[in-house]
Every structure is written in structure tokens, then in C-alpha cells.
Amino acid sequence: MMRALTFRLNGVERTLEIDDARALLVVLRDDLGLTGAKTGCGVGYCAACTVLLDDAPIRSCITPVGAIDGHAVTTVEGLASGGVLHPLQQAFIDHGAFQCGYCTSGMLLGAVALLRSNPHPSREQTVQALEGHLCRCGAHQRILAAIESVAAQGAAAEEAQ
Amino acid sequence: MNGEQGGGVGFNRRRFLQIAGGGVVVALIGFGARYALKREREFAYPEDLNAYLRIGRDGRVTVFSGKIEMGQGVMTSLAQMLAEELGVGIAMVDMVMGDTQSCPPDAGTFGSLTTRVFGPALREAGAKARSALLGLAAKRLGAPRTALTVQDGVVSVIGAPSRRVTYADLAGGAKILRIVDRRVPLRTPNEFTVIGDPVARLDGPAKVTGAAKYAGDLRLPGMLYARLLRPPMHGAILMRIDTSAAARVPGARIVQHQGMIAALHPDPQAAAVAVQAIRADWSEPAATVDSDSIFAHLVAVGGTPDEIAKHGDVDAARERAPHRIRSVFHKGYVAHAPMEPHTALAEVKDGRATVWASTQTPFPTRDHVAEMLGLRRDAVRVITPFVGGGFGGKIAGQQVLEAARLAQLTGRPVMVEWTREEEFFYDTFDPAAVVEVDSAADPSGRIALWDYAVFGAGPRGAAPIYASANERIVAARNGPDIHPFAVGPWRAPGANMNVWARESQIDLMAAALGQDPLEFRLRNVVEPRLRRTLEAVAKAFGWQSGPAPTRHGQGIACNIDAGTCVATAASVRVDAASGRVIVDRLVCAQDMGVVVNPEGAKMQIDGGLTMGLGYTLAEELHFLGGNILDRNFGTYRIPRFSWVPRIETILLKNDALAPQGGGEPAITTTGAVVANAVFDATGVRFYRLPITQVRVKDALAAAAKA
Predict the structure, then answer these.
(1) Same domain, A60 and A16
(2) In sequence order, which ranges of B494-553 are alpha helices (DSSP H)?
């Protein structure tokens, strides 16, 4: 049903009069112009559509937009601040942790969520956290290396403050 | 100015430089066709080389390439090649790719051809542009060309660096028409400063910030999303249709045209609701083949095969051979499953069509759109944004035709984004295949007989890399009519099957002789580069000599693909209780000639090996006739983080050889090397890919009983 939603989107307060059953992914991409989150499978298997709801990674393709009312949404467009890339974004570049780039937004947000909740994850914990994120190009090893380099710097922990 | 103006014989060797628009256009005439593959003559690279690069007044260099960037990194490596020859820093280069209006025609991005075939054409354009600019600089500076040097787009007099002029200055000068008549050599490996540098990928910042645009990210005013009615299975015939409920979805528009039925709506979810509201009755054909019976079918319809190689007398050798090994290998259909589904946005107005497409083949796609719409080729423009993975699956372009037709019919811009279910249904799958091989070695370990036939996959990877006294290699007729649904090229088409079968058979022979599989290969391999590659990988891996199964779980395999020699070693564990194969480590060595971007090459090796774990361990399309049973990632499992081994890569230095292919070679070894390592770990040989958990568990249980 149509209703007014109030939420923070990448740090900015927003209100939207909208059918609250529509998929968050579609609203982000079509109504709000944020196309960083991608459509990969449509049913929550691939995680290309991952965004953060507060600090939790969610599959925006199967999340009704009504769920964001009163919460904060972070998309890949909101990771850099003041023209400075988030440490994970920089690490993905430095480690060549992407190829086609289509899964990259979801991977980054999955990794941000992981390091916010667990700044120094073991390899197993990182694998576990990202297991549901599909990448067809085979960038996995480099993605793990990128995340571990940031964890080692402790940069993410500072960022999360 | 273009090549046609100067089309007469004798004009071909002239090169022009003139001011045009905002900058210098270097029009270098005199080559092109020789870089095109014979079968791609239609898209031969143009004679008129202003098609390849433009130098702006600000000194920035724009490179135009009909290739596309789908993750393989050629946006960066092509920029490096041009920067090297032109004499500019890579930071000065902007890439325009896959736009049929501004880029030189190109048959498509596949076959590891970008670096090998387009690369030399681009480099020559850069070299000739540098030469022409040096000529201009010589006049401007009043110094002979031989006294000049170029760095970062600045020409200066050697020993007098204050006497300098920039490419930008030259571009901003008076109108120039300059004719040069000299062959310009390409820079050699000892001169390289940009080629060979592990430059960070140019697409990195855009891809990590979400700024990178893919076809589905584009929006046009008035755009409609289209969802098409799809049959439940291939071969189904539409008997009855009722679109009345669909038409009642507010804002929905239903289009029926020559069998195409689509629901369109400004909101993609509403378009989906509308298409689902279409009531359709289908007549479904009975299934004749399925995922298991397909192999007998492929052999039955194989007909008279093509001969790939033959020498000696295989029949006589068969009679003589004391210990022949006869094997039959099977592999199922495999999906491309790029993370970005097929997508196209089309606009048709004023007799012109513009399409933004997720495609590996912008120019052929342009021609198909033109033909379908009844437009001239030059009235159709295909623009290729970033492509979210292709692997051979984005060559066909069905979604582009759908979007273009619907845009024409509705008069509105139309976006077609295939769902994952459509992606699995209309994929041009890697074909199921059968290999039958009969081989024997003499007691000294030399191959005496190699009689090899492949069905379904085609010949790539079947050609001999080992010496055999008597040899026959044949490939059965292969084409869409022998498969129950569409098939097509899949990253190194056919080679994954052929290399797995060949390298498994080689291991079987070595094991039968009680010989070490590495030594057996080194004894029989023909190409010295491949021998060196095998030795390099064995050393880096720490190969433990001995006949398999050593129970260490080590495997080795090698191949020559796209001009590159590749050898991979694997370390695996097999959990007998679950049947799970755990690949702990892969070490891959490649001799790929000059390496343009070592980091990019390593990324392709990592990616190929990782992707290859899918066809090796899990990926196999289930189907019943034309009914595809796997329609999403829930049942069709692709490699995940928990599968990924430690991967180490070695690039062998070989500057004497021009750059060879990099996107495909590594993946051709994954199936073979893992299968061989599984045998080494368990003593059980697998004759069907994928080596699934269930198959491993069953086979180990059977072996334990026996």
C-alpha cells in the first residue's frame, strides 16, 4: 500500500511516498537513481543486490521497501566519503579483486558488514560471511586477500566508529 | 578523410595528419585486412586508422576499439599497448569500446583474440601516429627527427630538453596535411616502458564505487520494461492465449507480434505481474533425450567425423599393442551463467535505432538489428557499456533483437532484462560431449597408438601435443541440430572437454606403465615451450615423483591454447564419507609470450582456474528433452568462496614471442588436473564430469567393496 517512508539513505534523511510492497532494489535503481546494487537472480541466491540495512547486509531484491522505514540504508554509492574511497574499495582496486564488476557492489557491502561486526575475522569466518555472494569471473581469492589486508590494517574498525 | 577517399592503388602507403574537430586526427593508411581472421573478413580492421585514436587539444588520447570490456581487463591492456607505441603515459589515455558509431569494426570479443589480433593493429596505429607527430615536431623545433625523443606526450631535443613541444601543442597548431612514406617499426621488448607493467585496471574506480554503468543501469525518458511470454520448454507450441487479465494490470501494455508476446510497463515488477497474468496453453513435445541418455544420442548422430590429425597406421598399431587402454569420457551441458543477465535498452525513432547492449558482438549485433528492422547498417548504433561477464554466452544477442523490435512497435525506449530463469532457458550452453580414446604406449614409455574421437564438443583441444607413432584424431559433426536446445562457445569452446579427456588418458597410460605422470608427459610432449612450462610448474608445486596413485592427492595437466603453453598442478583431498573433493592448491604456469599486463594475466589465470572448478566438480545442466530443469542458482551450483584453493601463478618470460591468448588457456586444465589429483588421492578414475559429491561417494563405496 502507498505510504510515506522515512529513512536515511547513504547518510541523508529521505522521505518517499511509495507502494511499500515494491522491492527495495527496484526503488533504489529506478526511483532513487542508485544503480550500484545489481539484479542477478531476482530471488536472493546471488547477493549482487546486497545493501546494508543499518549494519546488516540484506538482499534488496527480495526486501519490500517498507522494511527500510525508520532505518538507514547504505549502498555502494555511499561508501566513499569526501572523495576518499572506503578502505575496502581501495583494497579491491589494489588487489584486483574484481573482473566484470557486476558482483562487486554486493561483495563490498558484504565485506563492510563483516568487518563492522568482526574487525579481524579468520579466513573461515570471511569465507562463511561471503559464501552466499556469487562471482562468476573467479575473483574470489583476490577478494579474500583484499578483505584480509583491510582487516590487518584495522582501517575498517576505525571507519566503523 | 577516410580510406575510401584514397582508395586507389598507390595511395595506400600514404599517411595523413590533419586537424579535424577538436584535435589532431591521425589517418594512417596502409594496413588492416592482414590483421583480420580469414573468416572475419567482413569485419576486417579498417585501412583508415583515424578510427583507432584521436589526440585532443588537451593532449588526452582517446582510443577506439570495437572490443568490449566484460571483466577480462582489455580496457587496460589495450590502453597500455597504445600508450607504449604512441609515447604517452597510460593516465593520458581514454578508452571508447564497443560503440559501432565511433569504433573500428570488429567481429567480436571472444577466442582470446583481443591481444593477439587487435593488439598489433592498435600498436601499429600508435607507432605511426608517433612517427607523424615526430615529423611535425621536427619542423616545429628545427631539429632532425633523429635528434628527438618522446616521453609522456612531450617531444624534446635530445640533450636540450628545454627545446620541447607537446602532442597537445602539435594538435593545436595550424592545419596540417602531412604525408609520410615510411614503415614504422613497433617498439621492441627491451624498449618497453608501459607494456609489461602491472598497471592497475582502469575500470577499477568506477567498479568499486557503483559508477560503472552496465546496460541495465541506463534510463531513458518514457522507457518501458518489457517481459516476454516464454514457453515452458524448448519445442513447445502455443495453442491458446488470453491476455485480458494482463491487459487489466494498470499501466500495462501488451504487444503481440509474429509470435512474440510481451507485457510492457514503466515499472519492472509491474511488467512481471502482467506477463504472469497472461494465460497460455502450450503443446509440449515428448522428451527424447535427458541428462543421462544424451551421450548415446551424441554418438549416434555423430555421422562421419572430420579428421583433425592422422599419421602412421592406427589399425596396425592396435593389433601390435600389448596393453591398450580404451576409455570413454562424458561431460554434461554447462551454463555460462554470467552474473549480469542478458540486457538491452533500445530506442527506435526517426528511422534510426540505438541499442545499449550487454553483448560480446556489437558489430554483428548491429547488423542483425538493421536486418530485422529493415534499416541500413549505418542507421543502427550499438553501444556497449560495461558487460557483466560473457564467457562466450553474450555472442548471440537475442535480447537485443527483442528490445529493438519492441521499441519499434511501441515507439518508446524499451529495456529487456532477462530474468535468471530466462538466462538459463535461452543460454547457448557448453555442449554435452563424448570422447572415445584408444591408446597404448611401448614399454619405454613412448606413445605408440592414439586413436581419439570427440562427439558434441568440437575439435578445440583435441589436436596432439604429444608425439605418437600412430595417431588418428577425429571430431564428429557438431551443430545446433544435434542438441535439444541451443549450444554455443563457452570459454575455450570444446577444450575443457578435450583436455580433460586427453590428460586423463595420458595419466591412465602412465599409471598402467607404473611411470610418474610428469615424467611420462615430459617424455612425450612435442613443444619445447610446453616442456619448459611443465618443468616450471612441477618445480614451483613441489611435485613428488612416483607412479599414481601416490595418495598425496597431486595432479598435473597441460595444454596449448590460444598460442599459450599452460601447465597446472593441483593438490586435493577427498572426503570419502561425504564425497567432497577439496582442492587445496592450484599452481599454474604459462608461457604466453610477451605479457602486456602481468597482473591482468594473473587475474585471468585465477579466474579461469576458479571458474573451471564449476564444470569440474558441480556444474551440469539437468534437463528432460527441451525442459530445462535447472533455472536458477538454487540447483545449479557455481563455485563459491569455500571451494577456492590457494592459487599460485607463474608467468614464464618469453619476450621473443608476441603476446598470446590469456583469457582461456588456464581454464582448459582445471578439469584434467583435478581429476588426475583425485585419482592420485583415491585410486579411482572418473569418466564423467562433473565429479560431483554423489558420484565420488558412490565410486569410493564401490571401490571399497571391490
Answers:
(1) yes
(2) 495-513, 517-524, 528-541
Which residue of A89, A90, A141 is in closest CB contact with B644? A141
Return the number of CB contacts < 8 Å for A and B: 166
Rounded to a whole number, what is the distance in Å from the CA of B645 to chain A's nearest CA? 8
> CB neighbours (10 Å) of residue A56?
11
Point out the residues of chain B with pLDDT beneath 50. 1-40, 173-179, 181
Q: Write down the pLDDT at residue B142.
A: 96
Q: State residue B439 phi and psi, 5-degree precision.
A: -145, 165
Q: Is A66 strand, coil or helix? A: helix
Residues A6, A74, single domain; the answer is: yes
Number of domains making up chain A: 2
Candidates A85, A100, A144; nearest CB to B388 = A100
Which residue is listed with cell 611401448?
B442
Domain end, chosen from A78, A108, A143, is at A78
Size of chain B in residues: 706
Secondary structure of chain B: what % helix, strand, coil (to 5)? 35, 25, 40
Closest CA to B471 of B314, B609, B348: B314
Q: Does residue A73 sit in the same domain as residue A12? A: yes
The pLDDT score that the predictor gives to residue B1 is 28
pLDDT of the residue at B290? 97
**Same domain flag for A74 and A20:** yes
DSSP code string of B133-154: HHHHHHHHHTS-GGGEEEETTE
The CATH number of residue A141's host domain is: 1.10.150.120
Strand bridging mode B160-166 / B154-157: antiparallel
CA–CA distance, B16 with B38 (Å, rounded to integer): 28
Average pLDDT, chain B: 91
DSSP states of B288-353 as a string? Answer: --BTTTHHHHHHHT--SPEEEEEES-HHHHHHH-SSEEEEEEEE--B----SSPPEEEEEEETTEE
Domain that holds residue A19: 2-78
CATH at residue A18: 3.10.20.30
What is the ipTM score, two decimals?
A: 0.97
pLDDT at B498: 98
Q: Do residue A137 and residue A120 come from a single domain?
A: yes
Mean pLDDT of A123-128: 98
Cβ partners under 8 Å of residue B466, min gap 6: B447, B450, B506, B521, B524, B525, B526
Judged by CB atoms closer than 8 Å, whether chains meet at A126 and B641 is answered as: yes
Residues A74 and A126 in one domain: no
Smallest CA-to-CA distance from A85 within B589, B302, B207 is with B207
Strand partners, B65: B97
In chain B, the domains with their CATH numbers are: 15-203 (3.30.365.10), 215-283+342-417 (3.30.365.10), 294-333+429-705 (3.30.365.10)
Asked if B686 contacts B699 with a C-beta cutoff of 8 angstroms, the reply is yes
Q: Which residues of chain A neighbour B206 with C-beta distances below 8 Å?
A: 101
- pLDDT, residue B6, reads 28
Q: CB-CB: which of A36, A103, A143 is closest to B339?
A: A103
Q: How far is CA B70 from CA B11, B80, B345, in A?
A: 38, 18, 18
Asked which of A15, A46, A78 is the last residue of a domain, the reply is A78
Kindly state whether residues A71 and A107 are assigned to the same domain.
no
Q: Find chain B residues with C-beta within 8 A of A133's C-beta.
A: 641
Higher pLDDT, B322 or A56: A56
The minimal CB distance from B208 to the residues A29, A46, A93 is found for A93
Contact flag A131-B644 (C-beta cutoff 8 Å): no
Cα A114 to the chain's mean position, in Å? 10
- Chain A partners within 8 Å of B71 (Cβ): 98-101, 137
Same domain flag for A32 and A68: yes
Task: Give the closest residue to A88 by CA, choosing from A155, A134, A35.
Answer: A155
